[in-house]
Design goal:
This protein has 120 residues and is mostly helical. It has four helices and no strands. The chain has one domain (32-119).
Length: 120
């Protein structure tokens, strides 16, 4: 009987150790998806500006950029929202898009500020 209790205690301790690491890994994976969306939006802004002749400082809206995004991407299907439900934007030609502040705070426990590089 004691052996069973010891085995259950060891399994419980392993779960307590592994669960937080898995949670951080999941958040980091989701942050990677947001970073990929920001990169896709940045490319879409540049393509839009080149196609329309818009210069620095012009503010396209998401609908302007939508035709330059992959139709299977999350950002396309979500209507310009990130995984946390926050809207990307405003967009400015020749300026990288920014990670929404609420999204940045949500992922701060899994990734540091340097992770977002030019998007913060």
């Amino acid at each position: 009987m004691i052996e069973i209790v010891v085995v259950i205690a060891i399994i419980g301790m392993m779960i307590i150790i592994v669960f937080p690491m898995a949670w951080v890994g999941r958040k980091r994976s989701r942050a990677e998806k947001v970073l990929n969306d920001l990169s896709a939006l940045d490319s879409a802004i540049h393509q839009y500006a080149a196609d329309t002749g818009r210069g620095s400082g012009f503010n396209p809206v998401f609908q302007d950029l939508k035709k330059y995004l992959d139709k299977k991407s999350y950002v396309y299907r979500s209507g310009g929202k990130d995984l946390c439900g926050n809207l990307y934007g405003p967009f400015v030609v020749d300026t990288p898009p920014r990670v929404p502040e609420k999204t940045h705070r949500y992922f701060s426990s899994a990734v540091d500020d340097a992770y977002w590089s030019i998007y913060h």
